[in-house]
């Protein structure tokens, strides 16, 4: 199970002559199996932090250790493997492949990991069952509701059984009831499957299920690391 | 029109979207603009070349009052007229015979009295060896005349006049001259492609001495006709870009000359007719090249439709919002058409600018006359600007209308879906394409059936009318078949997608799904590729096949590697001397028997020695419908047996074994008939034709050995009208034909070389210009194909950035994700390649088989038309596919290097 440690992480975006400092020396620690909520106003660096943890973006400076490995030291091929095997990312706008069915979307990361056909089929059925969508397996994203699409996205994120799940505003596009269903699912994955979950959110309900809440202001964590 | 400012601002605001929407039309009008600008810029060169061969800008025949008329005064008076830069006066003397010291005779020559400082057009551009001062007693000869007489510089010739006196006794009046100049006019016979006519053998003397020469030859005329040629200052008085001013200038010059030469002298304005026709010539050239540009226009329209479709798809939600705010469907369509008009204007402006650059490349091919593409010669006429602007706007409106209508009628709810309903299936009605293909195939079938049939009402209906449609059939078949094959079903893309499996591995199914879900967009691109390749392959193949056919025709007409005629029929050593020339492996004499009639009208009759003829001419298998060359040779070896041509055999209803009764008339020294000589020959076999013995589709001929026609040949030798045999020459392997020709020219001026004629045909400026233009057009088509594929991929990649970013975030590498796009491009290209190459080859093959079929009753040519697949066609396929895949890779590189975080942040998630 991973632990997450960041030390003095800085991220600067350059656009032409202007600079935007998204993270200004962010330090954080989480323990294994934590469900962590990350909150803060728009533009405070929440999504940037999540992108760093997910191996999608690299910091300008600092260290990001996941289970003892510094992501900054990984080359591109290692980062690809990290994203494929160690992290499951859940997006606010779902980002499913529109031309694939729900089942095929869930299979996609397993195909990238070159898992055998039988394993893929079995696992995708199990995951769709887990998220309550086994009857919608052959439907494409445009035939699913928002909540259903997000649940498919969660199943996709679990495809290669990663120990770490990162969710960026997962309930942002959902109604109250559906959003609650999704949060219940996160809790279930954390408590019953031991996943470490980091959720970036404005949703107040996350606070009630999170082990820790990190507040970010101006690129730094307000709350002490432990 | 109230929406025009909004349409314009929308077009200008999003430059990337506008550029992709107008790209296809921009490329099409660039090609047309470049062509028109090149035509306009080469107008002066075209005019100058078309005027090159005329005999003076003005010319006249003036009857002098007497023999002592002073021509120098006339010349000075005309020369001083404004606009005149030179005047040439000359006179043809009424004597026509020359002979050399060796008694070589030259009859039918023109003896021309000239003013040496002002030469007439017939010898104006000649290269002169020696001096043209021409004091009395000296003469100049054209090169072929000198060769015919066998004389060189400093040697003697005699001009003589045979005159019947009062007692009807023939008296010869000679005058001796020394050859002071030999003039090489550059053309023996026949002339080249430009109007430098062949004037025959010419001997020149000084005009000043004409009267005295004629007195010596007893050929005084009393008065004579002076031939005048006048040249004007074309640089200042002839402007192809201002024809009315030119007409005015020439009319004023003409009046001034008429005032000098006096009434009753007919002054011909040789420039005016050509100038007046020049505007029509330029207009005709524009129309011709516009028609030839049809493939580019067609592909530009298809590419434009794709680009517009993509831009409308990008704005689907925005346009749907317009409708929720109260816009009607008609208003949305009108708005989009207004945008198209603005886009058309932008495409026209950009097209004209780009066309200037392209015109530099096209200058050498739009005009058959060579010109140096100097930038200062760049001409942009009002006609071109208007034509290009109108074309651009019309094309943009055409490509926009259907997509605008579809977008405007889309239900708003559909905008929530990733692909609108209209994009998930190919909205295609095959009726038009089935009709095109059916008419094309039926046309070919009717023409094929009616070939060789006699003319009748039935063959008129099923032969003549389809024959008139024949030139359009390839276009109909190419367009109809490619559209059918690329649009009839979306499954074809799914089938071809299986090819990518070994390369794309895990993401192969993503490619298949994407192609299945949006077949319309795939087919729009595939059809562009298929049409482009089909046109290119068809054109290159037909041109190469045509080239091969022309070469076979040339060889058939000449008969061997070289053919010469003896200049002197009395020269009995000619054949021996010819055989001794280095590089000649064999010589065969071929005699056309004159004054021979048969009981069945009216074959030409040829006599030759079979062994030497077949060894030298080496006739190919297609001349012999039965038996082959060896069998034909054997027939001729048998005395009394002849071969007949198919045309004669069919026309005279002959059978093998029939006896032909031939009669030859005998004439005395004065050309009067004396008696007839009879000869019976037996038809031993049939040939289509034999090379070197005349040439024509309806050659009615009898071929026999010199032994069979011995009596006729003997009679011919003593004829008053002597004819010389033609000698066919086989060159030794590796011999340089140029060196051999030079050596043979020392024996006779009449030489024609097969290889030289083939090269001359290939250099035919009109054909070369046409081929050059078509090659440039095909190169431009490759640009359109590459740009088309790149455009669609780029737009598709923009639309699917988030999808690709999601894949990378979930564990795919950048290049792994990029292979999805490359794989889709490869499948579309493969479909286009297979369909285009297949249709292009099939259409070309059928067209070549029917290329020379004429209307019913029209005979087949003596030489076959073979299908040739040239290297250029294969190169087109390789380069075209290579360029397209390179474009796909370049576009896909963007995906591979995508900033995932930025894309997800910007596009949501």
List descriptors.
heterodimer, A: about 230 residues, alpha/beta, 6-stranded mixed β-sheet, 4-stranded antiparallel β-sheet, 7 helices, 10 strands, about 25% strand, globular, B: about 900 residues, alpha+beta, 12-stranded mixed β-sheet, 10-stranded mixed β-sheet, 22 strands
Describe what you observe in this structure.
The complex is a heterodimer of chains A (226) and B (909). By secondary structure, chain A is of the alpha/beta class. Chain A is 35% helix and 27% strand. Chain A is built from 7 helices and 10 strands. In chain A, strands 6-7-8-3-9-10 form a 6-stranded mixed β-sheet, sandwiched between helices. A 4-stranded antiparallel β-sheet of chain A has the order 2-1-4-5. In chain A, strand 1 and strand 2 (18-30) form a beta hairpin. The longest helix of chain A is centred in the C-terminal third of the chain and has 18 residues, at 176-193. Chain A starts with a strand and ends in a 5-residue tail after the last strand. The model of chain A has no long low-confidence stretch (mean pLDDT 87). Chain B has 909 residues and is an alpha+beta fold. In chain B, 54% of the residues lie in helices and 16% in strands. Chain B is built from 32 helices and 22 strands. In chain B, strands 1, 2, 3, 4, 5, 6, 7, 8, 9, 10, 11 and 12 form a 12-stranded mixed β-sheet that branches. In chain B, helix 12 (329-366) runs antiparallel to helix 13. The longest helix of chain B has 40 residues, at 519-558. The model of chain B is unreliable at 188-197 and 416-422 (pLDDT under 50). The chains are: A alpha/beta (226), B alpha+beta (909). The A-B interface holds A 47-48, 51, 54, 56-57, 76-77, 80-81, 83-85, 89, 91-100, 104, 108-109, 111-114, 141-142, 156-157, 159-160, 168 and B 416-419, 506-507, 509-510, 513-514, 516-517, 802-803, 805-814, 816, 899-901, 904-905, 907-909.
